[in-house]
Specification:
This protein is an all-beta fold. Helix content is 0%, strand content 49%. Strand 3 (49-54) and strand 4 (60-64) form a beta hairpin. The termini are close together.
């Protein structure tokens, strides 16, 4: 009999103080007995994380959305980054299971609530509608030497129904997705144009118009949120599936089966869909109605380290 350890890291925002009381509210996080949970990093090492990735050195890269919907906030009363949102690099330099280093990789006025990140060697892809951006660190000093607009034309500026995660598939292509805050009119580097929209508007003062019935260059009409893939050189943009509400992440396994995760608030389900040809499986998990309702003066954010201590093989 042998055992091994598996580690997961995920972001957790906890409401630390109540508006109605000065009492500190202890966060409730439950796990099976074989899980061991500890805080790996927390604010002020980073604030309001939206996505993360792990590089070849084992460091955690985090996109922040401190300026998310800042048109609703008083910048003098709430945390605000006047020079744009940030991408942070977190590291556990002494390998004691707790992050002890936090640095800014980039802060950019074009980063308005970025929702996706993928680190591929020197290239760092950031999803921030209307752009899919690439920052290149040529000399490895954790400072970008070049910035490129890889794709542009996505709807959903400063909106959570917009451009989301980026992943690399086993076929060498990039997989990503966007929500239904269109319209999306995106031309890849070979000249192929995606045109997509729906009836959905609202959620921000920038999402006032949208329309369906648009025809892409492949002659098809795509509606709502989209699952997409593209070559690393920016050619070959392709729609894998459409008509989602707010698809948050596309993933692909070694057999070429695609899936996506959708996040919704206020009693909407989180859905995990596996779609390959005509096969589809759906598992729904209910979320609390209060999720997404701002009830706190201070939101404390943590990266939580979960280790499965022993697994029998």
């Amino acid at each position: 009999m042998s055992f091994k350890s598996i580690t997961f890291i995920f972001a957790l925002s906890v409401l630390s103080y109540s508006c109605e009381s000065d009492a500190i509210e202890e966060p409730a996080l439950f796990s099976p007995e074989e899980f061991e949970i500890s805080v790996w990093a927390e604010s002020p090492m980073f604030f309001n994380p939206t996505n993360m990735d792990v590089d070849a050195k084992g460091r955690i890269w985090v996109t922040e959305a401190v300026n998310y919907r800042n048109y609703n906030n008083d910048s003098n009363s709430f945390l605000h980054h006047a020079q744009g949102d940030r991408v942070m690099i977190l590291e556990d330099t002494d390998q004691d299971g707790v992050a002890d280093s936090s640095r800014v990789f980039v802060q950019d006025p074009d980063l308005v609530s970025p929702l996706g990140i993928a680190v591929f060697g020197k290239r760092v892809f950031i999803s921030c509608a209307p752009h899919l951006l690439v920052y290149t660190d040529e000399d490895g000093d954790d400072v970008p030497d070049k910035k490129e607009i890889f794709l542009t034309g996505f709807g959903g500026l400063d909106h959570d129904h917009s451009l989301h995660s980026i992943l690399a598939g086993p076929d060498g292509k990039l997989y990503f997705n966007t929500g239904n805050a269109g319209p999306h009119q995106v031309t890849d580097k070979s000249g192929w144009t995606l045109r997509s929209g729906s009836l959905y508007t609202g959620g921000s003062p920038y999402n006032t118009t949208n329309s369906g019935g648009q025809i892409s260059d492949d002659g098809k009409v795509y509606v709502g949120g989209l699952a997409l893939k593209i070559n690393p050189d920016g050619t070959g943009l392709e729609v894998l599936a459409h008509n989602f509400r707010n698809s948050y992440e596309v993933f692909v396994d070694s057999r070429g089966t695609y899936g996506k995760m959708t996040t919704m608030i206020r009693s909407s389900p989180v859905e995990f869909l596996g779609f390959q040809r005509k096969a589809m499986q759906v598992i729904s998990v209910r979320m609390a109605p209060e999720l997404g309702k701002q009830t706190s003066d201070l939101v404390k954010t943590s990266l939580v380290h979960i280790g499965i201590r022993m697994i029998r093989e």
